[in-house]
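How a chain folds remains the central question behind the approach discussed here. No coordinates are needed to read the tokens, only the vocabulary itself. For completeness, the protein is quoted in full, as a sequence line and a line of structure tokens:
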Amino acid sequence: MLEIVSAPIDLDVLVRAVRTDACGAVVTFAGVVRATSPDDPRPVRCIRYEAYAALARLQLREIAAAAAAAHGPLEIAIVHRTGELALGETSIAVAVAAPHRGRAFDACEFAIDAVKARLAVWKQEVFADGQAAWTANASAVCDDEAAPSPSPPNAPAVPADEGAPSPPNAPAGPADEGAPSPPNAPAGPADEGAPSPPNAPAVPADEGAPSR
């Protein structure tokens, strides 16, 4: 059982999915919505989760295979929920069954760390004051480096460097001070010695020229 679901998660269903007569230990983990975020003291009213479901299911299969390769033989189930969750509701559940408790504990920890580091899920914390903030589901650090954090669904793309684009419909700024004038604008002279336009009165070459 490796799923992204919108309905409430029943941990007993995961336990039944992994339990076998060959396994002497079953370890479970449930992540629930709490009242405050670690980095923000404001009270949380609810959390909204969104997922790239097709990619997330593929990632769950990869995580389960990696857990089995590192700590198997074992059986594993992982379910992540989407939608709006109130305080105390389960957002993710992991169940691992293994012949011995040590491997079951290790595999369960491995799985939840990998989910937090890799899974294509985003959460929007909605605070009691009405404000909200998106967070990529990529907080754990992998063995070599932190996993990249994708932007939440429908969020504006962030440029790779500090030169962020102007907001939509904002007037474009010139690339540099020597930028060309906009279309239909009067052309400025290239230098002070530019010729006068057609039909303009002739300007004497210098003020000391003799009169005719």
Strands lie at 2-5, 25-32, 36-37, 40-51, 75-81, 83-86, 90-98, 121-127, 132-136. The longest strand covers residues 40-51. Residues 174 and 184 are 16 Å apart (CA to CA).
